[in-house]
Amino acid sequence: MLAIVCPGQGAQKPGFLSPWLELPGAREALGALSEAGEVDLETHGTVSDADTIRDTAIAQPLLVAAGILAADALAAQPTDESAAGAVAPGAFAAATPADLLAGHSVGEVTASALAGVLSQADAMRLVAVRSRAMATAAAAEETSMAAVVGGVREEVLAAIEAAGLTPANINSAAQVVAAGSAAGVAALGENPPARARVIPLQVAGAFHTPYMAGAREELAAFAPQLSPAAPSVPLVSNAGGESITDGARYLELIVQQVASPVDWQACMATFAARGVTGILEVNPAGTLTGLAKRELKGVGLQNLNSPEDLEAARAFVVEHAGAASDGAER
Questions:
Q1: Inter-residue contact 288 to 5 (CB < 8 Å)
Q2: One-letter-per-residue 3-state SS of 32-73
Q3: 16, 54, 94, 115 from 75: Cα distances, Å
Q4: What is the 3-class SS of 214-264, one letter each residue?
Q5: 3-class SS at 205?
Q6: Is 208 labeled as catalytic in the residue annotation?
Q7: What is the mean pLDDT of residues 286-305?
Q8: pTM of model > 0.90
Q9: Catalytic one among 34, 44, 48, 105?
Q10: What tens digit of pLDDT does each residue of 7-43 get?
Q11: Do the strands 166-172 and 175-181 form a parallel or antiparallel pair, or are they unpaired?
Q12: How many angstroms separate the CA atoms of 73 and 54, rounded?
């Protein structure tokens, strides 16, 4: 059984889209995504520096487009002229080789396009509104985030609460991301929980906390303009690892997610419960497979970071897709 996962903000790197644009059809596909998302994805994915693509209003559309492009390339059929094949927009959603799809934070928007819940254009429209609204909310007050690695979960959560912060991301048994006022994050760093490290994150604000209430309201006002469909395969939500099978439910949860914690540990628990044997992470990959390596022992892992990874990724899909199926609903 195969889960395909999509990374969240912070995974982007300068120039990471450059090799993908060498594939036939990729530049045109990215141009269409740029138009829908109202951002120059080619420039930001090839020549913009790290500080530029750290901007929430740029980073989020860039990540969604990168995942869509990589997935469509994965679904492309190699030809005599190209071992990679031409990128055809919507190719992945039409074939959907995954048994489960999921994404971390904004990666859940990527996953919605791969599952056919939203069209690629609507996914880019959604992330454009989401990213701008979150950037505006983040600029309203000086807030921050920090990863708390190690320690005892109960003691970590108590320390986060004592600092006036919120556990914004439950990433694994060993990692919680705290978010809130910059002063609170600094105080947590000065007085960390026992046997834990506090690592400040290079982000613009306290995402997935009540500080994002304004952004949630803006996204809620926009959401009725979209026409969601049922996912082609279950889409595992950051909201407690729920398997979404209804488009309207997806929209409800993705709106709430802006100001609510991301529970990636619960997503991984759903993978384990469903018998996932392989996890493939789309570009820019490595963060989520890294968490799975520590949390889901024995599960096969594959990163899809460049066209050079396509052959191995396709073999991985063949090996794992449907491997644990016993006739149950996918």
A1: yes
A2: HHHHHHCCCHHHHHHCCCHHHHHCHHHHHHHHHHHHHHHHHH
A3: 20, 29, 9, 13
A4: HHHHHHHHHHHHCCCCCCCCCEECCCCCCEECCHHHHHHHHHHHCCCCEEH
A5: coil
A6: yes
A7: 96
A8: yes
A9: 105
A10: 999 899 999 999 999 999 999 999 999 999 999 999 9
A11: antiparallel
A12: 25
Q: What mean pLDDT is predicted for residues 245-272? A: 97
Query: pLDDT-derived band of residue 79, with 50, 70 and 90 as boundaries?
Result: low
In this structure, the number of other CB atoms found within 10 A of the CB of residue 38 comes to: 13
Cα 222 from Cα 174, distance rounded (Å) = 36
Write down the pLDDT at residue 204.
Answer: 79
- Looking at residue 211, its amino acid is Y
DSSP element (H, E) containing 301: strand 300-304
Q: Is 320 considered catalytic here?
A: no
Phi and psi at residue 282, to the nearest 5°: -85, 165
At position 300, the amino acid (one-letter code) is: G
Tell me which DSSP letter residue 79 carries: -
CA-closest candidate to residue 41, choices 68, 80, 4: 68
Cis peptide before 234 (omega within 30 of 0): no
Query: Which candidate in 48, 112, 119, 208 is catalytic?
Result: 208
If one counts every other C-beta atom within 10 angstroms of the C-beta of residue 37, the result is 25
Burial label for 290, CB within 10 Å (0-12, 13-18, 19+), is middle
- Would you place residue 96 in the very low, low, confident or very high pLDDT band (cuts 50, 70, 90)? confident
Is a pLDDT exceeding 60 seen at residue 328?
A: no
The DSSP code for 200 is E
Q: What is the DSSP track for 133-190?
A: HHHHHHHHS-EEEEEEEES-HHHHHHHHHHTT-EEEEEEETTEEEEEEEHHHHHHHHH
Can you tell me the distance from the alpha carbon of 194 to that of 152, in angstroms, rounded to the nearest whole number?
8
For residue 295 the two structure tokens come to 């949390």
321 and 98 in contact (C-beta within 8 Å)?
Answer: yes
**pLDDT at position 61 over 60:** yes
* Average pLDDT, integer, range 255-259: 97
